[in-house]
Fold:
Amino acid sequence: MAHFAKLDENNIVTQVIVVSNDDCTDPHSGQEDEVLGIAFCKKLLGGNWKQTSYNNSMRGNYAGIGYKFHTGVATLGVGSTDVFLPAQPYASWTISTTDAQWVSPIAAPALTDDESAAGKYYAWDESAYQADNSTGWVLTTPE
Structure:
């Protein structure tokens, strides 16, 4: 089975469907072909479609509703590739060059054993980062 994501005019995923291998396999080569799958999806439901992978073997992440399809991104160790990503969590975060995920501009500090035992965690504070780009992670205590 192959998976395809429908994109709106802003490259946001609005639908993900499963397509039978029979509907996206080239009868001459016997190989799955994204172009054939896209043509099948367009004929069935109209719109703009891209193939996605349930096991993340292509385009970085499985396309979820609300994810954005980014083109020409330097990630996954490649200078330019296409990936699906969830919404950017904060304005300062960028796409990792190694694993198609959003990363903060500074690494989160490590928790001490006592902090961890108390259930504390670090949360990102974008306004703190914008005020002083050497900070941004705030130690948080659960309520």
The mean pLDDT is 94. Residues 34-45 form the longest helix (12 residues). The two ends are 44 Å apart (CA to CA).
